[in-house]
Design a protein that fits this description.
heterodimer, A: 1200 residues, alpha+beta, 7-stranded antiparallel sheet, 73 strands, globular, B: 275 residues, alpha/beta, Ubiquitin-like (UB roll), 3 domains, 5-stranded mixed sheet, 9 helices, 8 strands, 32% helix, Atg5_UblA_dom_sf (chain B), ATG5_UblA (chain B)
């Protein structure tokens, strides 16, 4: 879970935020004004200040908000001037947009507001469609508007080039004022309420938000044009109303409710992705006819309301088809306001004690929750004064204080004069007609500030009207009597600014209660210092028993759910624990002395009690142990089907005392009893294959990998399957003597199911000429769920989930099977989210138009992508029982080819290429529906918030000491290039992202030996990053590398020296001509096709995931393949060796730096050398398969 | 660094080299040679001494033979305590091999339980496991298991099969993550110098305010004498499986990793040898 914030405003207008990982309210110190209301979403927080203007606080991110401005410079050729700015009268402007219709000279571009800054000056874009252009970035055409090419031809009469300039949003983490401009000048009246949401309505444009505001006169305004590149939005549009509105609430989706002055509620209808402000209002009566509604709060699927008698109500029957719901249910508790945050979680402010309450137990099945629970954490002011007091007390106690009395006298002498102005201020504050003062930076206790009785609104409005008075008070404070001039120097001398604020009267009142309170807080400090502690402690603004009074809370950016572990409800828990739980590096538990002691003593004990007595007889003779069970087996002969078999594992001690075993599978064949067996030490991998109908797993041996035909077994229940898998895994590891976490050299791979496997490379894996055959590699599973994993030979491992979450391997334990004796300290909950897609297909007929009645030969009207399987909304299931639905079906507009407004794509017939608009030739259409599902599992992975990633790469070698930085680069899911700072062996998660500017979004990146960074842009072009070094970890500029002819590149992997890329058509390319002085190389050389992914390691070894080849019309599956014959002088290798597959998606060999043992010239004595490289197993002459094997029929242990 | 799983293996495969000698007063036909054996620390004496019995029967007349029992330096050894515990409690600071005297007569009825067959040991073992699970999970886990699962636990112990035993025992070691540990820690503290056989109380792995309880916390609560005061030298050793874990070791971790197969944490408190 990444950290997110709950926002709140107290009754004095101070804004606070509370982090889900924190334990105290942090005051938003740059809020120069008091705030009335705030409304938060994940990326920003909007607020209405007491000046009734709207302010925006965009949270800073490691990736800045940058917007690319572009304009085109156009030129025409004439015989006299050659190409020049002299255009024909009918031509476009000399400077224009891409269409040529808009006049856009460079100086016409202005920053949208003072919150933006230019990143640099204008420059020419020399990249054209993934290709570098000739000098100057010109592209040529016969005439405007036409197709442009980068080559100048004899008939090129016009040319143009693109100029680029970036502007950056700079006002992050600060409150930026939003001018209240409508379409026709300033808005007539100030704002009174605000609500932000609507990000689920559409992803286009990225980061789109709806912002609704209510003015004092009861009008409703909708802010247009808010999205990622325009966080401030563009302008206000008035929304017509059936009455006067007092308050409005907007959910993450299309739910918008508002409260009318008269106490009824109105619901917005007609909100769609094309019309986010909706079309009409429907009136809903107040829950209580006597007491009208005063407040409403909506979420995804819930509506909560508060009536004038402070009763809380929950609206029944809200769903995506019925935004009005069906009835009210009265809830327990009296609140002044409620707010619905993410995941429909509910927050409220009690009218009894003005505390913030969290609704416990809100789940998607029980949206009304169970009970209110008070958020009970201190504010930062409280804690800071405590801690600083106790720290300073330790220094000062001995020096300045010898006892209470003297302490007091010291203070009274030095600070007597100071009490005057302070009190003066306080008196102003206490005066009935004046507001409480804004807290000075370090504030003495405000005696009895007035607590407003009604709502914060009236209070703040009052405050506003009294503002002049307050300013007088402030002026009074600014003109101190001469005596006060002494105080800065005095406090400077003592080294503790709090001293200057000590108020004598307050000191005395605190003396009465002080000691008890203080000793409770800092029990460790000695009694001497406690004297100093409380004298200093009264600098804190609030007494221990006084709790904050809240006016407004917003959980719209607060990502909690009912399972979140929050430390908000018990202020007694130590702050230290929260700090500890957030640390990403090796937790103290593993390095703790007690653990070390146990490990050491146990090995000592073994030495003492067993080493000298090995010749003694064992009391218990090792015997054979058999575990039996009933299973189903996917039988080897046709017709293939599941048959009932008996299954047994016989375990015994091998000759050297190691455990070994045999698997037996007893079946009937033609009434005859037969069996099949496999030696445990020959099993190469166990693959769980969960699908919706059976709990199955596949057992491979080297032979079965060659055959592409594993033993497929199904257990009766999931529990049984896991029992067997756990037992078999342990047996396999035991028989091979594999224990503990994967080594740093381990090879990692990921299946298309997201399962993670790791293999310990043998030294002869990269041997030449006789490497360990790939199909003999033993893979074991590691807990967790990832889409890709990357590592290096120092043991830093990162992964990226299907939902783009970044994860770092916690480097310890790594038990796959929960509870089986593995340490649970580094095992964390991991979640992943992906979409299941189904297609709605329709055919056009002349009478009724498009209907769901197809031709008899047509595909199912609801189907999968191929059209072969029927998939309806009702019968579509999540990929396996581990996945659960988390949302309803929605139309997917993001499908390639584009869609119309209802998500339809048109084609002449099924299955054809689809396009997003209807033409006369189209007779069929389809649209894609998506439904999100979520998986929760555990594994040795910890999240690296907050930026979602699409690719990651870790430098191959380099850092040797544990504190030396390890270069790590990544691509965010938006295509930004990022460089991770602070990654070391001790802190593999690093500290922060450094954004590396690019002119376009990227998709793949790899950093090889000597800090060579290569990357692939989304348009398929390759780039080399220049001058990357340990001093300049982000390098200085991108060098454009032309693609192979007519190919768009997809992925890159850089080894020690080799650079390989894969293009979108599955071709594998090797970069020729790389030299230290010219690291960009000269050309691409084709190696082979049918490649999905490539991973080049620190020995320049090449491994790929190969796609299936022939006749595949289903989703492609992958096989791990190893390039043979790669040698320093022959980096391209010779042929492929085939390993585990299909169903593999990703492999990384970037950790394996184990050099093969050197052998003599192979050509002379092949048999001798082979026995040298692998004495146990002289490799038989292997017939390498000439082309990729078809794995269609039976190869997929893991079916996509 | 080693994995926690290695601790389980080290603990399971702990062996005590033992020299069995026949009690001098037993009547033999010819001189009885001592018998040397590696005893598994996790097992029970009567479960692993078939070979010892066979060895001595060769030199004895059948009519002189009653139920076999053992003593160490005059202390009768209770077969229903795990072997490792017996060793730690009575012999931890003596020279190896452990010298055990074998008797076939004068069964000390007051000190020892009879053990006519392995099924008695099994019954004792299973009842301990059930008691431990009652403390840990209100018996929910053990009751959910089938008869064959219980058998697997027992067979794992009897045949010294780590995987067989742990494939089942891991379920007994699970707990809800949000609770941070078992309900109560099944433990027994044994004192050599006390008349009470052992101390056993209800003790939670986590304090009410959310702190992890350590071995030291347990001793402070249950047997504070075992903890040395600041100003005095250590008087007692707190021994589990022949090692002395630090007092700050979390109790939950100990219970998961250093419990005997009967799921109890058997802790010996023995006086520091005076040399």
């Amino acid at each position: 879970m990444s950290v997110s914030l709950l926002w709140a405003v107290d009754v004095y207008g101070r804004v606070y935020s509370l982090s889900t990982g924190g334990q105290q309210w942090e005051q938003c110190h740059d809020a120069v004004l008091e705030f009335k209301r705030v409304t938060a979403v994940q990326q920003c927080c909007w607020g209405i200040a007491c000046d009734h203007h709207i302010y925006l606080n965009v949270h800073s991110s490691d990736v800045p908000i940058r917007y690319q401005e572009e304009t085109y410079e156009n030129q025409r050729w004439n015989p006299k001037d050659n190409f020049s700015d002299h255009l024909l009268p009918s031509d476009r402007w000399h400077w224009s947009d891409i269409t040529g219709l808009e006049h856009q000279p460079l100086d016409s571009f202005l920053l949208p507001s003072t919150n933006w800054e230019w990143e640099g000056d204008w420059y020419i874009d020399e990249n054209f469609g993934g290709e570098p252009t000739e000098k100057g970035g010109w592209t040529y055409a016969l005439d405007f508007p036409a197709t442009y090419t980068k080559d100048k031809k004899w008939n090129s009469c016009v040319r143009r080039r693109r100029w680029i300039r970036y502007r950056r949003y700079k006002a992050t983490d600060t409150w930026a004022k939003i001018p209240s401009e409508g379409h026709s000048g300033p808005l007539p009246d100030p704002f009174n309420d605000i609500s932000c949401g609507g990000w689920e309505i559409s992803e286009e444009p990225r980061g789109r938000l709806s912002l609704w505001a209510v003015s004092l006169q009861g009008k409703v305004w909708f802010r247009e044009g808010i999205h990622h590149h325009s966080p401030e939005g563009e302008g206000w549009e008035e929304v017509s109303l059936p009455g006067e509105v007092v308050q409005i609430s907007c959910g993450p989706g299309d739910l918008v409710w508002a409260v009318l002055w008269e106490g009824q509620l109105i619901v917005r209808e007609g909100i769609t992705r094309d019309c986010p402000q909706g079309s009409s209002w429907v009136v809903v009566d107040s829950p209580n006819p006597e007491a009208g509604a005063i407040h409403v709060a909506v979420g995804d699927n819930v509506v909560w309301a508060v009536t004038k008698d402070n009763k809380v109500w929950f609206r029944r029957g809200i769903n995506s088809h019925n935004p009005c719901g069906s009835g009210w249910i009265g809830m327990v508790g009296e609140m002044v306001m409620v707010n619905v945050g993410l995941n429909d979680q509910v927050w409220g402010i009690s009218c009894v004690d003005r505390a913030v309450y969290f609704r416990q137990g809100v789940t998607s099945s029980e949206l009304s929750g169970k009970a209110w629970k008070a958020v009970n954490v201190p504010r930062d002011g409280d804690i800071r004064s405590h801690s600083s007091a106790s720290i300073s007390s330790l220094h000062s106690a001995g020096c300045f204080f010898s006892g209470e009395v003297q302490a007091q006298s010291v203070m009274s002498e030095d600070l007597d004069t100071e009490g005057g102005p302070q009190r003066a201020v306080l008196e102003v504050g206490a005066c009935p007609s004046s507001p409480p003062p804004e807290p000075p930076p370090i504030d003495p206790d405000v005696p009895k500030p007035r607590i407003p009785k009604v709502t914060s609104d009236s209070f703040i409005s009052e405050m506003l009207s009294d503002r002049e008075v307050k300013q007088e008070g402030a002026t009074a404070a600014k003109c101190p009597p001469p005596a006060l001039v002494l105080s800065p120097s005095l406090s400077g001398g003592l080294g503790d600014p709090q001293w200057s604020n000590v108020d004598l009267e307050e000191t005395q009142t605190h003396l009465a209660v002080g000691p008890a309170v203080v000793r409770g807080d800092s029990a460790d400090t000695c009694s001497l210092s406690s004297v100093a502690t409380y004298t200093l402690c009264q600098g804190e603004p609030y007494g221990a028993d006084e709790h904050p009074l809240w006016a407004w809370v917003s959980g719209g950016g607060c990502g909690v759910n009912c399972h979140s572990q929050l430390n908000w409800f018990n202020s007694a828990t130590a702050l230290a624990s929260s700090v500890q739980s957030m640390s990403l590096s090796i937790s103290p538990a593993q390095t703790a002395a007690w653990r070390k002691q146990i490990f050491e003593q146990l090995s000592e004990r073994s030495k003492r009690e067993m080493d000298h007595f090995k010749h003694y007889e064992q009391a218990v003779e090792q015997s054979v142990w058999v575990k039996k069970g009933a299973m189903q087996w996917w039988r080897d002969w046709k017709p293939h089907k599941w048959v009932d078999v008996r299954f047994a594992l016989e375990q015994f001690s091998g000759p050297e005392g190691n455990q070994d075993g045999i698997l037996f599978l007893y079946y009937n064949f033609n009434e005859e009893k037969k069996y099949l067996h496999a030696f445990i030490n020959e099993v190469t991998i166990l693959v769980p294959v969960l699908n919706d109908s059976k709990h199955t797993f596949a057992v491979y041996t080297a032979e079965r990998t060659k055959q592409r035909w594993p033993i497929r077994l199904a257990a009766a229940t999931e529990v049984e399957m896991h029992d067997w898998l756990a037992l078999l895994s342990v047996s396999c590891c035991d028989s091979r003597g594999i224990q503990g976490p994967p080594s740093k050299q381990a090879i990692w791979s990921v299946t298309c199911k997201g399962d993670i496997f790791v293999c310990e490379p043998s030294p002869s894996l990269e041997a030449c000429p006789y490497p360990t055959p790939c199909d003999q590699m033993f893979w074991r599973q590691v807990g967790g769920h990832l889409r890709l994993v990357e590592c290096n030979s120092l043991g830093v491992v990162w992964g990226v989930g299907y939902d783009h979450t970044a994860w770092v391997y916690t480097g310890y334990g790594g038990g796959f099977f929960q509870g089986l004796a593995s340490s649970t300290d580094n095992i964390f909950t991991q979640t992943d989210v992906k979409c299941v897609y189904i297609y709605e297909n329709q055919r056009w007929n002349p009478v009724t138009g498009y209907t769901n009645r197809g031709l008899p030969t047509d595909r199912y009207m609801w189907s999968d992508a191929t059209g072969l399987q029927e998939c309806t909304k009702a019968n579509a299931k999540p990929p396996s029982p581990h996945w659960t639905w988390v949302a309803d079906w929605t139309i997917d507009y993001g499908i390639s080819g584009g869609t119309d407004r209802e998500g339809w794509q048109y084609a002449a017939d099924f299955p054809r290429s689809y396009h997003g608009h209807k033409t006369l030739k189209d007779f069929v259409r389809r649209r894609r529906w998506a439904r999100k599902c979520k998986l929760t599992t555990t594994g040795p992975w910890q999240e690296v918030p907050p930026i979602p990633l699409s690719d990651v790469t870790i430098v191959l070698c380099g850092a040797q000491s544990s504190v030396e930085p390890i270069p790590l680069w990544a691509i965010s899911n938006k295509g930004d290039v990022l460089c991770r700072l602070g990654v070391t062996l001790l802190t593999p998660a690093g500290t922060s992202w450094l954004h590396v500017g690019t002119d376009q979004p990227f998709k793949s990146i790899s950093i090889g030996g000597a800090n060579q960074v290569w990357a692939i842009a989304r348009d398929g072009s390759a780039f080399y990053r220049g001058s990357v070094s340990s001093e300049s970890p982000a390098g200085d500029c991108w060098y454009h590398i032309p693609c192979p002819e007519r190919q768009k590149l997809q992925q890159v992997s850089v080894g020690r020296t080799s650079v390989y890329t894969v293009d979108q058509n599955g071709n594998l390319w090797f970069r020729q001509g790389l030299t230290p002085s010219y690291p960009q190389g000269s050309s691409w050389e084709h190696i082979c096709n049918n490649v999905r992914k490539v991973s080049v390691g620190p020995l320049d070894q090449v491994w790929i995931i190969a796609d299936k080849v022939q006749g595949s019309h289903s989703l492609s599956c992958g096989t791990v393949c190893h390039r043979l014959g790669v040698q320093p002088m022959e980096p391209k290798g010779q042929s492929w060796d085939y390993g585990i597959g299909g169903g593999w998606d990703h492999i990384t060999v970037r950790g394996n730096s184990i050099e093969a043992p050197r052998v003599r010239m192979p050509s002379l004595t092949p048999s001798l050398t082979s026995s040298l490289t692998d004495p146990l197993r002289p490799p038989p002459p292997r017939s390498l398969l000439p082309v990729m094997i078809t794995e269609m029929e039976n190869g997929n242990a893991v079916r996509c | 660094m080693a994995d926690d799983k290695d601790v389980l293996r080290d603990v399971w495969f702990g062996r005590i080299p033992t020299c069995f000698t026949l009690y001098q007063d037993e009547i033999t036909e010819r001189e009885a040679e001592p018998f040397y054996l590696l005893l598994p620390r996790m097992s029970y004496l009567t479960l692993v001494t078939d070979k010892v019995k066979k060895h001595f029967l060769k030199v004895m007349k059948a009519e002189d033979i009653e139920e076999m029992w053992f003593d160490f330096e005059g202390t009768s050894l209770k077969w229903h305590y795990p072997i490792g515990l017996l060793f730690d409690l009575h012999a931890s600071n003596t020279a190896l091999p452990w010298s055990i005297t074998v008797h076939f007569k004068n069964f000390p009825e007051r000190d020892l339980l009879h053990c006519p067959s392995n099924s008695v040991i099994e019954a004792h073992f299973m009842s301990s496991i059930k008691e431990a699970d009652a403390l840990k999970h209100k018996s929910q886990v053990i009751n959910d298991m089938q008869k064959k699962d219980h058998k697997q636990l027992w067979m794992g112990l009897q045949n010294d099969k780590f995987d067989q035993f742990w494939a089942m025992n891991r379920k007994l070691m699970e707990y809800p993550t949000e609770e941070g540990g078992f309900r109560y820690i099944p433990f027994r503290i044994y004192l050599t110098m006390s008349d009470r056989p052992f101390i056993q109380k209800l003790f939670r792995p986590i304090s009410p305010d959310g702190h992890t309880h350590t071995l030291g916390d347990l001793l402070k609560e249950v047997y504070p004498v075992a903890i040395p005061n600041d100003d005095e030298s250590k008087r007692y050793q707190v021994v589990i499986h022949g090692i002395e874990p630090l007092l700050e070791t979390p109790l939950q971790w100990l219970s998961e990793h250093l419990s005997h197969p009967d799921n109890f944490l058997h802790i010996s408190v023995i006086p520091v040898p005076s040399d």
